[in-house]
């Protein structure tokens, strides 16, 4: 079973490779010599180095106190999440899954071998508590792919102790800088090894230029959402908080963008991609929707006086979500491992590399992008106005739900438009987000009432009182009525502020 830890560290380089006296660092009572460890690590990647391109590292290391497989994902500069698995001859399946969105059907190959003699010191406080580990690493790198070379260097690494205050690293850095030691130009040993052992004919690809045409702007947004899906995949597999929701939002943003900007990206091509994105969003939502509903109903139940809670209502709510969660998790991992999902990622890559340009793709961005956003806004306007005119009931519920879906689409279109349209698009994003929240409150009430009717029926069949479910149902109805009452004035304010587009 793999373990995860948050790694916070900084790397430095020095001409003489020596360490200054670190007992002068505030808070350090002693510097303990822990001896020299001999580390031997083989790093794996695809032939075209997809992991390295994402600053992800995968290695098998022997020697030291944490021999095994290590997979590291970037979190922020100097901060990475490291997933560790026991030493084995082959890559553990769990780690293979966590890199699948990047590797896909590619083969993981040994690309670099790093052998390090690590001279380790512990910085401890007056109570002997570890503050940070400082090491001087003499590194030898050998590229294992054809045409590569070797490199040698010495670096200093300072890693914060688990649970430590990152500000402590600033104090250590201040002392190191005074001694002439400077931060490393490379983010990791692997990055430096790849750069210094690369075949001479290899050249880095040129960075993308500033957006010029309408398609440049839209494709930048498409690229960002594709990247979000790929990067969130490991977090979803690890059941990280809010990861499923964020990945689902990225798929919806992509699908909405293809629909909104059909004059810029040809919908005869993107519609089929949108269908696959709809499928993925649906799979991601199977577990998420029930979790959100359970949180809502649990919070509502907490507001009910104990004298009005009849029967094991809370227990039924928890059972309701638990019985689905385990099965949904297994199903979702299966989706992420499926050929269909990996094919969707490949399709998105191909679309970005060779986009299906529409008739407005090469135009200056402002006019075609503004027209697309305005078109979506008009659709929202028509649906909201229709919902307001309808009598309370099922038809109005459906109309509000449709307005909410189109509001999301208008919001995402405005998000994509912000670099081209500036403040008007930013203001529309804000307005559409507020409207989405209001209409979402109504839809959540509709879904909560449906769930309460189902739970009430189950409780009644078990001989339990359905009184509390009815009470919660009535409160949900009142929440929907408040939204419906507020909607006309809310929309009037939004419509008045949208003239800037």
Automatic annotation (TrEMBL):
Q: Using the record's annotation, list all stretches that form the CHAD domain.
A: 211-496
SMART domains, per the entry: CHAD (SM00880), CYTH (SM01118)
Entry superkingdom: Bacteria
Chain residue ranges for the region called Disordered? 190-210
Q: Cite the Gene3D superfamilies for this sequence.
A: CHAD domain (1.40.20.10), Hypothetical Protein Pfu-838710-001 (2.40.320.10)
- InterPro entries linked to this entry: CHAD_dom, CHAD_dom_sf, CYTH-like_dom_sf, CYTH_domain
- Domain named CYTH: which ranges? 5-200
Q: Which PANTHER family match?
A: CHAD DOMAIN-CONTAINING PROTEIN (PTHR39339:SF1), SLR1444 PROTEIN (PTHR39339)
- Any idea what this protein is called? CYTH and CHAD domain-containing protein
